[in-house]
User: What shape does this take?
Amino acid sequence: MKRKKLIRDEVAKGLPSYKVATIESQDELNQLYVMKVKEELAEVVNSDFKDITEFADLLHVVVCFSRANGHPLENLLSAMSVKQRERGLFSNKVLTDINPLNESNKIYTEES
Assistant: This one.
């Protein structure tokens, strides 16, 4: 099976049609979005967190990922606003006692 990578619509327009495919499977599209988020996050890190365009790319992928799953930008921004009002922002506060049984903490408790 050929490897696939999400690309921007305008980039696709400049490529030969045999190099571009449309993904019909939502599961496959979600997997590709997960990979794209990881790619864009790596580019933010590789820029030493200095290149704002890399942050913009990451945010753009997240917005498109959300939209592809039925959550338009307006709903995403609304949900963000509610979370911020109820729970605050992510700033410089950290939890030092991580519960390894909480599934969302798995990334912090796995050995690398």
